[in-house]
Amino acid sequence: MKTNAVAERRIDAGRNGVVGDPTWDIALLFPHQGQWSVEEYLDLPSNRLVEYAEGRLEVLPMPTTLHQWIVFYLCRLLNDFASSHRLGLTLPAPLRVRMWSDKFREPDVVFMLTAHRPRAGNEFWDGADLVMEVLSDTPEDRRRDQVVKRREYAKAGIAEYWLVDPKQKQITVLRLKGKSYVIHGRFKAGKTAKSHLLPGFEVDVSTALAGP
Known about the structure:
The structure is a single chain. By secondary structure, the protein is of the alpha+beta class. It has two domains: 7-59, no CATH class; 65-208, tt1808, chain A, CATH 3.90.1570.10. It has helices at 24-27, 38-43, 65-84, 139-155, 205-208, and strands at residues 50-53, 56-59, 88-92, 97-100, 103-105, 109-113, 125-126, 130-134, 160-165, 170-177, 180-188, 192-194, 202-204. The strands form three sheets. It has a six-stranded mixed β-sheet, sandwiched between helices. The chain has a five-stranded mixed β-sheet with strand order 2-1-5-4-7, with helices on one face. The longest helix is centred in the middle third of the chain and has 20 residues, at 65-84. The chain is globular, with a radius of gyration of 19 Å. Mean pLDDT is 86; it is low at 5-16.
């Protein structure tokens, strides 16, 4: 049986704590930032979106109803298309995707071609063929998706990246060319977003961003 690496780090902090203070005893059960191993990250019990990079954890903000509605809609649409053509596997977050040895992300929607199905492991996927991110409103979150993740997903060799922007009412589809992404299409409300990797897969932008 696999040993839970996080559980093994439990220590006795020797403090009762004060009402209103952070629960320091719980925090001390876990490694410091920069000291997490991949095994400890994978053993972390959490229903939150938590990403990993070089020994550090990044806890992502809780999504809104609109965000989740869009994710659910896109995931269902892609799954229906891929399943009907037996193209591959589609899943929503939370799902860990390893970019490289010490980097994990959790895209909102992930897709793996049937030919690469062995890379879709139970604990995590080794990369993906297509990922989607639904952008949030804060500048920090938008920069992470538009700049940081764009660079990382390209480095990981992910063939296609969809940036879904409810604020700007548009979907940008990026395709990998060499080691970086180029714009396959920038589709506004009233238009139809189209995949390069999966010919025939299309999304009506207005419908996808309409919300519940």
